[in-house]
């Protein structure tokens, strides 16, 4: 009788884990797809001179700041954008380090 309860609890826990994973997957945006759009909104890879990142902010130096699509960046999830000379400081959340890594690899 004890093993019967253990099996029932194991099945319930398994079902709850599957539901939790489905919910997380549905709420998680495909950042790899959006990262290409972000680079395009920055004027393309050739327009990017340098980039830096912190926990939530991404700072990028551009050749031509007029090629940057700030509205497009906002639509892709930027929570804030500050323009200073030929630099954009973008609040992206935890994906900023991943974006910097992607741009570094892309520029090679």
Short note summarizing the structure:
The chain has 108 residues and is an alpha+beta fold.
How would you explain this protein's 3D organization?
The protein has one domain: 2-Layer Sandwich (Gyrase A, domain 2), CATH 3.30.1360. The mean pLDDT is 83. The radius of gyration is 20 Å and the shape is elongated. Helix content is 51%, strand content 20%. It contains four helices and four strands. The longest helix has 26 residues. It is an alpha+beta fold and 108 residues long. A hairpin with a 2-residue loop joins strand 3 and strand 4. A four-stranded antiparallel beta sheet has the order 1-2-4-3.
Structural key phrases:
108 residues, alpha+beta, Gyrase A, domain 2, 4-stranded antiparallel sheet, 4 helices, elongated
């Amino acid at each position: 009788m004890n093993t019967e309860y253990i099996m029932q609890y194991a099945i319930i826990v398994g079902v709850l884990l599957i539901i939790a994973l489905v919910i997380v997957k549905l709420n998680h945006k495909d950042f790899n797809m959006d990262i290409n759009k972000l680079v395009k909104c920055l004027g393309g890879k050739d327009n990017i001179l340098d980039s830096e990142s912190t926990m939530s902010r991404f700072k990028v130096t551009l050749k031509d700041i007029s090629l940057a699509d700030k509205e497009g960046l906002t639509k892709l999830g930027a929570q804030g954008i500050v323009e200073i000379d030929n630099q954009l400081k973008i609040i992206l959340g935890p994906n900023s380090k991943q974006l910097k890594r992607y741009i570094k690899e892309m520029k090679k």
